[in-house]
């Protein structure tokens, strides 16, 4: 047994609402998705990058990077930098985009200053139902984002966050264990090695992971 094909769009024949996102990301500029990361949506799972990833425009150049083995629940939204407004003046209204003379005198630098950079979701992250990620956040490997949370700042590896704005609620393991897990990085193993060691990956015995072959 070698596990499912990571390039299969719908890996569960009995239910087509769960899709692997890597096949959907093919051909999209500024998007990178690791293998086996999935999105579950009983309504429109195949529209993820058009419906759930908002204001992501190629000309801006900000990247969405999602690591392997992530679980993304129904209704999750990821905001990118294309939705930011200039905030240094008295009004945040984007007069310039409507033209007809309103574009005159607009300094694009005032808008660029508000951009937050790439959005990066590490490996093995679980994002709960209807959570929202704001532009430029980095979510560390093994993190959990509680349902309905609004993530406005970086999330440390193996940390559970929740709320609006999301705040750390619990560190899943002690510092030494987290450091070891990040060093092991089982999600980068070949698929056959992952398959052989599923018991250790699912379990909580660090020595079993450290001695995996």
Keywords:
213 residues; alpha/beta; UDP N-Acetylglucosamine Acyltransferase, domain 1; 7-stranded mixed beta sheet; 4-stranded parallel beta sheet; 7 helices; 19% helix
Task: Chart the SSEs and their pairings.
Layout: E1 18-20, H1 21-25, E2 31-33, E3 38-40, H2 48-52, E4 53-54, E5 64-66, E6 71-72, E7 77-79, H3 108-112, E8 119-121, E9 126-127, E10 132-133, E11 138-139, E12 144-145, E13 150-151, E14 159-162, E15 167-171, H4 175-184, H5 191-196, H6 198-202, H7 206-210
Parallel strand pairs: 2-5, 3-6, 4-7, 5-8, 6-9, 7-10, 8-11, 9-12, 10-13, 12-14
Antiparallel strand pairs: 1-3, 14-15
Brief digest:
By secondary structure, the protein is α/β, with parallel strands linked by helices.
Q: Please, could you describe this protein's structure?
A:
- It contains 7 helices and 15 strands.
- It is of the alpha/beta class.
- The longest helix is centred in the C-terminal third of the chain and has 10 residues, at 175-184.
């Amino acid at each position: 047994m070698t596990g499912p094909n990571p390039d299969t769009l719908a890996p569960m024949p009995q239910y087509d609402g769960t899709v692997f996102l890597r096949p959907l990301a093919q051909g999209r500029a500024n998007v990178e998705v690791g293998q086996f990361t999935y999105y579950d949506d009983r309504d429109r799972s195949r529209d993820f990058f058009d419906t759930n990833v908002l204001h992501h425009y190629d000309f801006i150049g900000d990247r969405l990077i999602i690591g392997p083995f992530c679980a993304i629940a129904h209704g999750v939204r990821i905001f990118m930098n294309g939705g930011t407004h200039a905030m240094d003046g008295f009004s945040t209204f984007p007069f310039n985009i409507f033209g007809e003379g309103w574009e005159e005198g607009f300094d694009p630098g005032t808008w660029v200053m508000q951009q937050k950079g790439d959005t990066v979701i590490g490996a093995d992250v679980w994002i709960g139902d209807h959570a929202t990620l704001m532009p430029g956040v980095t979510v560390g490997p093994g993190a959990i984002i509680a349902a309905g949370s609004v993530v406005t700042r970086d999330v440390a590896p193996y940390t559970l966050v929740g709320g609006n704005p999301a705040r750390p609620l619990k560190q899943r393991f002690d510092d030494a264990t987290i450091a070891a897990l990040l060093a092991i990085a089982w999600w980068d193993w070949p698929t056959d090695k992952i398959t052989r060691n599923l018991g250790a990956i699912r379990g909580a015995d660090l020595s079993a992971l450290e001695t995996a072959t």
